[in-house]
Amino acid sequence: QLKKPCKQISRASYRPIEDLQRFVVRHGIRVLNIAGSSESKETGIWLWTFETLEAAFFRDKIHPKTFGGPGEG
Questions:
Q1: pLDDT at 73
Q2: Nearest-10 Cα torsion for 51, 32, 41, 17
Q3: 68: alpha, beta or left, given left = phi > 0 and alpha = psi -120 to 50?
Q4: Which are the contacts of 15, defined by CB distance < 8 A and separation ≥ 6?
Q5: 3-state percent helix, strand, coil for the chain, nearest multiple of 5
Q6: Which pLDDT does position 66 carry in this prediction?
Q7: Distance CA 53, CA 21 (A)
Q8: For residue 9, what are the contacts with CB-CB under 8 A and spacing of at least 6?
Q9: CB atoms within 10 A of CB 20
């Protein structure tokens, strides 16, 4: 309805971190809305989402002396 870009990324995605990064860059996303299943309906989804977002956007802040991108090292 609002004609905003939307991307579905799941645990079944081949490269969820890279897909998310590409989507954000391609559309110039400044505020990212996350929606999906609740932990009570899909066990482990909270941790997977947290780790995916962390790896996609905050890896250099958490591991400043590491080289490479997501999934490396």
A1: 41
A2: -40
A3: left
A4: 71
A5: 40, 0, 60
A6: 53
A7: 9
A8: 16, 19, 20, 23, 52
A9: 21
Length of the chain: 73
Q: What tokens does 13 get?
A: 């995605």
Query: Position of tokens 């909270």?
Result: 46
7, with CB counted inside 10 A (0-12, 13-18, 19+), is middle
pLDDT of residue 51: 92
Q: What is the predicted pLDDT for the residue at 23?
A: 95
- What gap in Å lies between CA 56 and CA 52, rounded to an integer? 6
SS3 for 26? helix
Give mean pLDDT in consecutive 10-residue pieces for the chain, a chain of 73 residues: 90 93 94 93 95 86 54 46
At position 38, the amino acid (one-letter code) is S
Q: What is the pTM of this model?
A: 0.74
